[in-house]
Amino acid sequence: MHIQELTLTHYRNYDKLQLQFDDKVNVIIGENAQGKTNLMEAIYVLAFSKSHRTPKDKELIQWDQEYAKIEGNISKRKQRFPLEIVLSSKGKKAKLNHLEQKRLSDYIGALNVVMFAPEDLNLVKGSPQIRRRFIDMEIGQIQPVYIYHLGQYQKILKQRNHLLKLLQRRQADPTMLDVLTEQLIEHAAIILEKRFLFLGLLRKWAQPIHQGITTGLEMLDIEYLSNIDVSEESDKETLRIAYEEKFSALRTREVERGTTLAGPHRDDLSFYVNGKDVQAFGSQGQQRTTALSLKLAEIELIHKEVGDYPILLLDDVLSELDDSRQSHLLGTIQGKVQTFVSTTNVSGIQHDTLRQAELFNIQAGKLVRESGGA
Amino acid sequence: MYYPEPISKLIDSFTKLPGIGPKTAVRLAFHVLSMKEDDVMDFAKALVNAKRELTHCSICGHITDQDPCSICQDESRDGTLICVVQDPKDVIAMEKMREFNGKYHVLHGAISPMDGIGPEDINVPSLLNRLKDEEVEELILATNPNIEGEATAMYISKLVRPSGIRTTRIAHGLPMGGDLEYADEVTLSKAMEGRREL
After folding, report:
1. Which domains are present in chain B?
2. Residue A166 is nearest to which of B113, B148, B151, comparing CB atoms?
3. Size of the A and B interface in Cβ pairs below 8 Å
4. In this model, does residue B190 exceed pLDDT 60?
5. What was the pLDDT predicted at A212?
6. Which B residues, 115 through 154, put their C-beta within 8 Å of a C-beta on chain A?
7. Does the beta carbon of A160 lie under 8 angstroms from any beta carbon of chain B?
8. pLDDT at A374
9. Which of A103, A159, A163 sits opposite B147 (nearest CB)?
10. Which residue ranges form the domains of chain A, and what is each CATH number?
11. Would the ipTM clear 0.90, i.e. be above it?
12. Are the C-beta atoms of residues A108 and A92 closer than 8 Å to each other?
C-alpha cells in the first residue's frame, strides 16, 4: 500500500503542508529540530490514531491552534481511499473514506505502518513493557478485535486491582474476587491465544531474515514467557483452565499484596541467538540485528496477513546501522515497500535504492522538494 | 457575571441538569422569563412534586408515587419471577415490551470497585431479603452487557446459587430488524456463542 498524498494542518511545527509521495522511497533530509520526526509521526498517527512518542494528543496540535488535522490518500490493493484524523481539545475524530468511525478498532488496520526508530533498538534490551507494546500494536493492526479484548482486559484488571486493595483491608466481599477473576480469565485466554499465534508467525518470518543478515552465522529464536505453564499450541480452553489454576493458587498472595500477580500484562518475550539469551549475553550489535530482523519480519507478516505490504518509516535509524545491515534493510524493501527515511545527511548512505529516491528537504516546518538522485 | 441575582441563580440551577452546559443554561433561563406565569408555576410545581411525591418502592426499588409500587401490588403478576435491572428506566423499557408478567428488582447501579461501589451500595441486600421472604423460582438478570453489568449479574448468581433458585441471564446478540453485515465483531461472536437449535 502507498500514501499518495499527505496534508497536515496545524500539526506540531507544520502550519499547512501538502505533499505528494513517490511509491518507492522518500528521503526526508533536514538538520536537527526542523520537523523530520514530526512528519514521520504524522504518518504513524494517521495509521494508529495516536502517537508513538506521547500519550497526550494535545501535544500534536500546533501552538496557539484549536485543532490539528492529518489527511492522507491511501492506495491499498488497487483501492484508493482517504483517511483523516482530527485532533482537538474535544477529542479526536477518525474518518475512513469520509465516514467517521466511532470505534477505533474499525479504523485501525486501514493503513498498515511499520516504524523503525532509534528507540526500537531497545526492543531487545529495554523493559518488558516495550516488548508487550510491540506485540500488542502488531496484532492490533492485523486483527482489530484484539484491541477490543485488550481494552476490556485492562478495564477488568483495574477493577480487580481496586477490589484486591479493598480485600487487603477486609473491606469487600471475597465472592466478588471470583467474579472478576472469571471475567479477567475470559479475556486473558483470548489475548494469550492470539499472542501465541502471532509469535509463531513472527518466528517463521524472522528466522530466515536473521540468517540472511548474519550470512548464515546466527540462528534466532523467540520464546514467549507467560506466567502459566502452557505450550504455544494450547487452545483457548486449555489456557483458561491453566489461568484458573494459577489464580486459585495465587489467591492468598494476591490479597496480601493487593494487586493482580498473573496475566498477559505481566508476560515477556525472550530472544535467543544460537541458543544464548540475547538480552543478557548478546553484544550490542546482536541486539540491534535482532531488533532489525523482527521489524523486517513484521513487514513480511503484514504482507501475508493483509495481502499488501505496509508502509515503512525509518526515523533516523539508517545512520545507526552498519553498512551490511543497511544494505540488507534497503535490499529487503527494494521496489516493493513504500518507505520514508529521515536523515540529517544522505551522503553517508550508499545504496541503489536511495539513488532513485525522491528527496525532500526540510527547514523549520517547510518542505522544499528536490528532484531524485543524490 | 452581570446578571441580576434571581436569573443567575436560575442559570446555576439549569447547569446542574445532565447535558446542559453554561450557554444552554442561559438560553433556558431567559426563556423562562418570557414564559407565562401560570406555565412557570406549573413547571415549578411539577419539579417539586416529582421529587416530593415520588419515592423508591420499599420492595423493588422502582420509582413510584405509592408504596409499594403498582407493579409490586399487582396480584395478577407472577411473583415467582423476578427480573433484576440496573435502573428504573430499564423497568419502563421492559414494561413497553408488554410480555413480561413477573416482578422487578431495581439495583440502582452496578458493582464497580474502582468507583467505590460495592454490593451493599446498590440494592443487592434488599434483593437477598426478598428471596428469603418471597416464593421466588427464577431470577432473570437483565443488567447491562458491559463489564460492570456482567460482573454484577455474575456476583448475584453466585450468591443465589446455593439457595437453589434458578438464575438466568438475558441473551446477547443481534438487534432485530438490522442487517448482519453492520454488526460489530464482538456482538456477532456473542450471537454465535448463544446460537440455538431450530
Report:
1. 5-53 (1.10.8.420), 78-169 (3.40.1360.10)
2. B113
3. 50
4. yes
5. 86
6. 118-119, 147-148, 150-151, 154
7. yes
8. 41
9. A159
10. 1-112+308-374 (3.40.50.300), 125-307 (1.20.1050.90)
11. no
12. no
pLDDT at A373 (0 to 100): 44
CB-CB under 8 Å, A162 with B113: yes
The answer, for A189 touching chain B at a CB cutoff of 8 Å, is no
Instruction: List pLDDT tens digits, range B97-129.
Output: 889 999 999 999 999 999 999 999 999 999 999
Beta carbons of B113 and A163 less than 8 Å apart: yes
Contact B114 A152 (CB under 8 A): no
pLDDT of residue A335: 78
| Residue B181 contacts A, CB cutoff 8 Å | no
Contacts 24+ apart (CB under 8 A), A140-143: A140/A108, A140/A109, A141/A47, A141/A48, A141/A108, A141/A109, A141/A112, A141/A113, A141/A302, A141/A310, A142/A109, A142/A198, A142/A301, A142/A302, A142/A305, A142/A306, A143/A194
* CB atoms closer than 10 angstroms to residue A11: 27
Distance of CA B65 to the CA centre of its chain: 16
At B71 the pLDDT is: 93
- With CA atoms as reference, the chain B residue closest to A183 would be B151
Predicted TM-score of the model (pTM):
0.82
- Interchain CB distance below 8 Å, A145 and B186: yes
> Is residue B39 within 8 Å of residue B47, measured between CB atoms?
no
pLDDT of residue A349: 65
Determine the residue type at A201: L
Per-residue model confidence as pLDDT tens digits over B11-44:
999 999 999 988 999 999 999 999 999 999 999 9
Which chain A residue lies closest to B111 (C-alpha atoms)?
A: A176
pLDDT-flagged residues of chain A (< 50):
372-374
